[in-house]
Amino acid sequence: MWTFKNFNIADWFSFYRVAAIPLLIILLWYGEQNLFTWFLLISYSTDAIDGYLARKLKITSARGSQLDSIGDQLTFAMGLMGLIVFEITFIKENILLILVAFLPYLLQMVIAFVKYGKATSFHTYLAKASAVVQGVFILWLLFFGPVYWLFYFMIVLGLLETLEEITLIFMYDTWVADVKGYCFALKDIRRDNVENTVKE
């Protein structure tokens, strides 16, 4: 059970992204594209800050990792809603490519919830790179308009990240946080311990 008094400074930056969702929804409702985009930029910025602080101050935790993932997913969802509301023409023109990237992501979420009962928090290098590219593309589109090479790069990177995420889900029988990638998972003692327990 989470309690606010146990939150550290990195957790509060993660929590901001969750708490900002109602404000972003209100700005969407009133069609305030400029304000919405600026607050979305702040939310994306806190994603970089909380991870840095957690590592720098050595205050990483499973709770913080999960809160970070929830904040990331909600912020990403708000970014998509912003595109649907403010850039619907772009969405309609590129709907097939968007679905090609988004449907595997939904599949990965379903697999995670079926296996673990909650979303993953692997925080792989690919996931971090993909999140940065997604954020830059969404913000650039909302501020200035589409950049198609960045859009295509985002689609490819997102598909690679989702494929790795699904692979990791099948590699870990129990929920774990902070797996840097497939090669890291091959040597991860947490996975080895689970396999040895099963064999015994």
Quick structural gist:
The chain is mostly helical and 200 residues long. The chain has helices at residues 9-19, 21-29, 33-56, 62-86, 88-93, 95-116, 125-143, 148-171, 182-186, 189-199.
Describe this structure in words.
By secondary structure, the chain is mostly helical. It has two domains: 86 residues, no CATH class; 107 residues, no CATH class. Helix content is 78%, strand content 0%. It contains ten helices and no strands. Helix 7 packs antiparallel against helix 8.
Question: Can you tag this structure with a few keywords?
Answer:
200 residues, mainly alpha, 10 helices, 78% helix, disordered C terminus
Q: Count of DSSP E strands? A: 0
Major beta sheet summary: none
Order of helices and strands: HHHHHHHHHH
Q: What distance lies between the first and last C-alpha atoms, to the nearest angstrom?
A: 32 Å
Strand content: under 5%
Number of domains: 2
| Average pLDDT, all residues | 87
- The level of helicity is over 70%
Q: State the secondary-structure class.
A: mainly alpha
Overall body shape: globular
What is the CA-based Rg, rounded? 18 Å
Return residue spans where pLDDT drops below 50 for at least 5 consecutive residues.
195-200
Count of runs of 4 or more consecutive helical residues: 10
